[in-house]
Design goal:
303 residues, mainly alpha, Alpha-Beta Plaits, 9 helices, 63% helix
Length: 303
């Protein structure tokens, strides 16, 4: 391997389970496409807003899965491309942000249509619609299990893979939306509550909005290079300062799933080589790129 190839390989900041997660998103995208056809078709045939809402959300989620898969492919193919100074680890976060905006728009459409159905109720074929709702629930459960993150990539783990974590969160929301749809249909059939079905659609829209907002915040924080961990920053600060030394500047940001970069400027009365300061950070998880500048303080010996 040439020195240039080694330099590029050192800039690969993909998640540990990148290939595995890419395969899983492909499989679940196919499953969701089949479910979309059944769910939207059932909603239109049986005139169920809750089923149609679930189908629209599934369409948005299918688009999210396709986008996530393409992000995985792009990040993998260009991981060592010299044009990307810090690799392609953030591509998944960019895809997640775009998907969040699409999800929010879908939630708005669902809410508008549900309100219209509340104001102007329409007849629903409850019996057949319930079976379609049960089918959608089973599909969502299977898909969520297939996308369940591993120990190192739980959806609530902000160091994990946002692509797979967000997809899992969306499908978990789909499970709840499908359950609401079934509950609304059963309430309409057994109790005569015609408002229950569009009310379930409204609850589903609120849930989708909540997950979209959560995804916007997480992806946006990475894209804007916000500090990913105050605790890790403080630990880095503690390790890089000793008697006679002062930390002039410190930046910590995320490069990709499980990868962080550190840039530090240190002023020292007895300055050491930069590698000595990098050695102090050994053992800290996720520090994949460390840049240290050492400046002698006034009157310090020059090296």
């Amino acid at each position: 391997m040439s020195s240039e190839d080694a330099f590029r390989a050192d800039r690969v900041y993909l998640g540990a389970d990148h290939a595995r997660n890419e395969r899983r998103t492909r499989i679940v995208a196919i499953i969701c496409a089949l479910s979309l056809v059944v769910q939207v078709g059932g909603g239109l045939i049986f005139n169920s807003m809750a089923l149609t809402a679930g189908g629209l959300h599934m369409a948005a989620h299918l688009a999210a899965l396709v986008t996530a898969t393409l992000a995985y492919v792009f990040a993998r193919r260009f991981a060592a491309d010299a044009r990307f100074s810090f690799g392609t680890g953030k591509v998944g976060y960019l895809a997640g942000f775009a998907n969040a905006v699409a999800l929010a728009f879908t939630a708005l459409l669902i809410a508008i249509e549900s309100i219209e159905r509340l104001i102007h109720p329409e007849a629903i074929e409850y019996g057949a619609a319930v079976w379609v709702g049960v089918f959608s629930l089973v599909v969502n459960l299977v898909s969520a299990l297939l996308l369940r993150p591993g120990q190192a990539g739980h959806a609530h783990d902000h160091d994990g893979d946002l692509n797979i974590g967000a997809a899992y969160l969306h499908l978990s929301a789909d499970v709840i939306v499908s359950t609401l749809a079934i509950a609304g249909l059963l309430a309409g059939r057994t109790l005569g509550w015609s408002w229950a079905d569009p009310a379930a659609g409204l609850l589903g829209a609120a849930l989708v909005t909540r997950f979209a907002w959560s995804l916007v915040r997480r992806a946006g924080a990475v894209l804007l290079d916000m500090n990913p961990s105050p605790e890790l920053t403080q630990e880095v600060r503690n390790r890089l300062t000793a008697p006679g030394e002062r930390l002039l500047d410190l930046h910590l940001w995320r490069l990709g799933p499980g990868h962080h970069a550190v840039l530090a400027v240190i002023e020292a009365a007895d300055p050491q080589p930069p590698q000595a300061y990098r050695a102090r950070l050994a053992g800290l998880p996720g520090l994949s790129h460390i840049t240290v500048e050492v400046r002698p303080s006034a009157g310090a010996p020059q090296r």
